[in-house]
Amino acid sequence: MIKKSIRSINTQDAKLAMAHMYVAFIALFIGASAGLIQTLERSGKLKLPAGIGYYQILTVHGVILGLVLTTFFILGFMLASQSKTAGKYTSGERKFAWIGFWMMTIGVVITATFILLNEASVLYTFYAPMMAHPGFYIGLTLVIVGSWFEGFVIFKRHARWRKENPGERTPLLSYMSVITMLMWQIATLGVAATVLIQFIPWSLGLTDSIDVLVSRTLFWYFGHPLVYFWLLPAYMAWYAIIPKIIGGKIFSDSLARLSFILLLLFSIPVGFHHQLTEPGIDPFWKYIQVVLTFLVVIPSLMTAFSLFATFEARGRELGGKGLFGWIKKMPWKDARFLAPFIGMLWFIPGGAGGIINASNQMNQVIHNTIWVTGHFHLTAATSVMLTFFGLAYWLIPSLTGRTLTARMNKWGIIQTIVWSLGMAIMSGAMHWQGLLGGPRRSAYSEYLGNADTAAFGPYQLAQAVGGSILFIGMIIMLVIFVNLAFFAPKGEQEFPVAVEGETSGTTPAVLENWKLWIGVTCALILFAYTIPFIDIIQNAPPGSPGFKLW
C-alpha cells in the first residue's frame, strides 16, 4: 500500500516555502561551483577559459551564496515555521508573499545576468569607484524590496496571532522570525539608500561622481547585520528545534527571546568596525562602535549556556553521569542533530576570529588579508550552512509530504563529515596565509619572484584541495535535496518544534513591547551614526569619477 502524502503545514503555505527552497539550492549549485573554479584558478591549477575573469567568478560566488542562497532559504524556513506555529496565512498574506518572492527572483535573474556577462564584476561588496552596469544595481534593488514584502507578511501574521489570542504568549519561532526580519528591514535601509541615491544615478550617467566613503559607510551599516541575518535563523533552530529532535525541552523561553532582542540591539550600529583602516571617520566613533560590537558577546554566551544546559538536562534524563556524560546520550546517528551540532562547534573558532577582526589593534594585522575570507567561511559557510543543511533534512520532506529515509539520513551524516573536512582544510589554509600577509580578493596571490611571499603556493594548493572536498559535499547535499523533494517515500515527516521546560519561569510581557525595542534600536543607530555621518558629508573630498566594467 502506497502511503499518502501528508504535509506538516497548510498545503499552499508549503508550496510557497518550497519555492524559496528551489531557488536556494539552485544557488548552492551555482555558487559552490564558482567557488571551486575560483580556488583552482588561485592555486595555478586551472586557467579560466573563454575570457572568463577571476573577479567575475568571485562575484558570482559571493553574491549567489552570500545573498541569494541565504536570503531565500531563510525566508522559506521562517514562512514555514510561522505557518506551523502561528497558523496558516490568509490568501491575501500569501499573495503578498508571492509578489515578494517573484520580485526577488526576477531581481536575482537580472543581477546574475549582468555578472555572467562580465559587466558587474564588483564582488558582493560592490565598492565604488568600481562601477557595474545599472542592471546589476536595479536587480539588487528588486531583491531587497521583494524581501521587504515578505517581511511585512511575517509581521502581519504575528500581529494577527496576538489579536486572535489576547494575553497569551506568542509562538517562539514566530517571535524570532519577527526579530530577524526587523533587523533585516532596518539594516537594508542602508544598502537601499546607497543603491538608489548613489549607485543607480551614477551608473546611468545622471551624476558625474560618487562619494566613496558615504557609499562604504551605508554598505557596512547593512553589511555587518547581514552576518546576523544569516546567523539568527540558525539560532532559531538551535533554541527551538534541536531540543525537540533530542527529545528535550527549551531551557528558557525568556532567555531565548531576550537573546534575540539583544542581538537586534547590538548588531546594527557597529558597521565602523569594518572600516577601522579608512580615513575620514573620527577614531572616537570607531571606538564607540567597537565597544558596541563586543556587546554581542553577551547574547552569544547566553545562547551557548542555554543550548548546553538543554543537552545536559536531556543527557541526565537518559542516564548520563558526570560532567560530560550527556555527550554519549546525544543522537549522533541522526543527521538532523549532527549537522547543526557540528555547526555550533565550528562557531567557537569562528567567534574567536570575529573578536580579532573587531579589535582595532589586531585588525591591523589581518585587515584585507585572506584571513577575513577564512573567518566568514567558518561562520556563514560552516556554522550557518551546516545548520541549514540539518534543517533541510526534515524541512524539505515535511513540505513535500515525504519522509527522511534511513539511507538519506546516512548520506546526511556523510555530507556533514565531508563538508567539515573540506572547510577545515580550506579555511585553515586561508587563516594561516592571512597571518603571512596573503591578500584578500586577489587573483595574484603567489607573487612569483617575491621571496617574502613565495611560500603562499602550498596554502593556495591546500585551499584548492579543501574547495574540491567542499564541492563533493555540495553534490551530496543536492542529491539529498532532490531525493527528499521528489523521490523519497510519501508520508508524514515531523516538523519538530520544542516546548518550554516546566521550570523555566514566566516570560515577561516587556519582551514583546515592540515600540520599546524598535525605539531603543533606532536610538542606538542615531547615536552611533548621526554625528559621524554629518562629519563625513561636511568634510567630504571631491567625488570619485569611478571606472566602468562594461
Could you please describe the fold and organization of this structure?
With 550 residues, the chain is mainly α. It has 16 helices and two strands. Helix 6 packs across helix 13. The longest helix is centred in the N-terminal third of the chain and has 33 residues, at 54-86. It starts with 10 loop residues before the first helix and ends with a strand. Mean pLDDT is 92; it is low at 447-453.
Key attributes of the depicted protein:
mainly alpha; 70% helix
Short précis:
By secondary structure, this protein is mainly α. Helix content is 70%, strand content 1%.
Question: How much is the radius of gyration in Å?
Answer: 23 Å
- The stretches of 5 or more residues where confidence is low (pLDDT under 50) are 447-453
Share of helical residues: 55-70%
Q: Separation of termini?
A: 60 Å
**Strand segment count:** 2
If helices are DSSP runs of H or I spanning 4 or more residues, what is the number of helices? Answer: 16
The largest sheet has its strands arranged as 1-2
Q: Could you state the order of secondary-structure elements as H and E?
A: HHHEHHHHHHHHHHHHHE
- Broad shape: globular
Q: State mean pLDDT (0 to 100 scale).
A: 92
Q: Would you tell me the structural class of the helices and strands?
A: mainly alpha
Characterize the main sheet. 2 strands, parallel
